Amino acid sequence: MREFYKTHYALEVARKTNLTAALSLPVGVVSGIAGALVIMAKEAHAPLSVGDLVELGAIALSAIACSLSGYFLFRSLYNFTYGYTPTPLQLKKYKDQLAAFHASAGRPQAEANELAEAETLDYIDTEYAKNADRNAKNNDIKSSYLHRANGAMIAAVGFGAVAGVVYVFNSVSSPRSIQKVELVNFQEHPAMAGKPPAPQPPPAKRPEPPPSRLIKEGNVAPEAPPTPPPPAPTPTPLKK
Fold first, then answer.
1. Region 111-134: what's the mean pLDDT?
2. Rounded to an integer, what distance in angstroms lies between the CA atom of residue 185 and that of residue 120?
3. Distance between CA 50 and CA 113 in Å, rounded?
4. Contact (Cβ atoms closer than 8 angstroms) between residue 150 and residue 19
5. Mean pLDDT for the stretch of residues 185-194
6. What pLDDT, in 10s, does the model give residues 138-167?
């Protein structure tokens, strides 16, 4: 029985670890589906066609399933109290205290040690059985929530697949929007022609008059200009 208690206790501890590790798969799948649903929902615009309505309905159902899966995942992780046996040091101190207690009652030291060890082993067996029972109940509840989370995750994947198929169909079958292209005169809009605008000539500037010539002359007085000769007398006409 002692080996059974110990084995069952170790089994439930290992089971708890495996259940916690198994939560990573639905968490990743639900996160990916939620991201895909957001992308598909953003592409829906009014007015809605029949295909858009089917797509939005599948998106809504998948979102509800994702929410349920997330709730069950949260419940499988939170608010569980697991039981563990005391540490070896605590058990040793307890056994030594029992040996001292029996020795103080007048028992020989060897007998007191044997009695303390037997009582300590009985106590360990009791703790193994009690904690194994507590952990087994917690693991059963955790496993139940994990099962529900996986079921909701499968439903979310199914509805998300339907929404994805309709999304692809709507994208392929919908007519493409025709873009209006307007040709402009490149001479009027040089930036549209890919060339920078030609620089404008600067405005005309009023010309400046030439400055006076300043020349340093020597100290020699300039010669007077020559006197022009007197004019020749006008001849007097002869009288008849």
1. 92
2. 100
3. 84
4. no
5. 54
6. 999 999 999 999 999 999 999 999 888 888
Contacts 24+ apart (CB under 8 A), 45-51: 49/170, 51/166, 51/169, 51/170, 51/173
pTM over 0.85: no
Exposure class string for 52-76: b at 16+ Cβ within 10 A, else e = bebbbebbebbbebbebbbebbebb
For residues 103 and 116, the answer to whether their CB atoms sit within 8 Å is no
Q: Which residues contact 101 (CB under 8 A, 6 or more apart)?
A: 112, 116
Q: Which of 55, 31, 33 is nearest to 43 (CA)?
A: 55
For residues 83 and 135, is the Cβ–Cβ distance under 8 A?
Answer: yes
- Give the DSSP per-residue string, 39-93: HHHHT--SSP-HHHHHHHHHHHHHHHHHHHHHHHHHHHHSS-----PPPHHHHHH
What digits encode the pLDDT tens for the residues 69-119?
Answer: 999 999 998 888 999 999 999 999 999 999 999 999 888 999 999 999 999
